[in-house]
Amino acid sequence: MAQNVIGALLRNEAYIGNFIYNRDTEKLGAKRTHNPRELWIRSEGTIEPIIERDVFLRAKKTMEERRVCITEEEMLVRLRKVLMKKGKLSAPQLSTQAPAYPPSPRICFTLAHFEMSTG
Q1: 59 lies in which domain range?
Q2: Taking the CB of residue 110, how many other CB atoms lie within 10 A of it?
Q3: Is 119 within the bounds of a domain?
Q4: Cα–Cα dist 73/8, whole Å
Q5: How many structural domains are present in the chain?
Q6: 17 and 43: one domain?
Q7: What is the DSSP string of 50-82?
Q8: C-alpha–C-alpha distance, residues 116 and 65, integer Å
């Protein structure tokens, strides 16, 4: 949970002075829907920045480099490899990356992807 909050903070351009409008649309009586990025309206320098732009962009680049973007099928293949090697899957195994394994999604992303709960 804390990782999600920290990640959201590190992706929020308001900290470098930008405000982004129109990310979501909610028509009267309908569910909220996410708009494609090309419909977003970015207003730069709207608010006082509290983080230097270069620091923000370095953090963003680091997060993008660590992100594992794979298909559901590839996710399952990698999870099966860990299962076969270790005999079980656990949150600690998925929360840390051992160099011997191909990168696999962290537990929070795996649970979110398959809409699973921990309780």
Answers
A1: 2-66
A2: 18
A3: no
A4: 27
A5: 2
A6: yes
A7: SS-HHHHHHHHHHHHHH-----HHHHHHHHHHH
A8: 26
